[in-house]
Amino acid sequence: MNALLTFLNHVFIERLDLWVLLGFVAQAMFTGRFLVQWIASERAKRSVVPVAFWTFSLAGGALLLVYALHRKDPVFILGQAAGLFIYARNLFLIAGEKKRNLAATAAMDLPATAQR
């Protein structure tokens, strides 16, 4: 039991610095995306992935990448860097869809003579 307490003290107390705090904040943001998705799905009574999920993914993933670069962990670096492309691409696709929907709505509101 003493060895476990010594280990936990070393890992969570002695090694605590700003980088570890950044890592915890980043991980909390990254985990928060699942809470956002879960709440949105419960409200809709079906599985949905809200924009906030991708925003939390991008922000948390970027912070985790900074932390991984500081730790010089190649597995962690590649994992986070690859994910950032997916998160950014999904946000880009969502923005494009919103733009197309706005354009379609605006076109429907125009009188028939103005559309020519």
Q: Treating each run of at least 4 consecutive H or I residues as one helix, how many helices?
A: 4
The figure for the number of domains is: 1
Mean pLDDT: 90
Helix content: over 70%
Describe what this molecule looks like in 3D.
The chain has 116 residues and is mainly alpha-helical. It has one domain (19-108). It is built from four helices and no strands. Helix 3 packs antiparallel against helix 4. It is elongated and about 80 Å long. The termini are far apart.
Features:
84% helix; 116 residues; mainly alpha
SSE topology:
Blueprint: H1 2-14, H2 18-44, H3 51-71, H4 74-109
Question: Can I get a quick summary?
Answer:
With 116 residues, the chain is mostly helical.
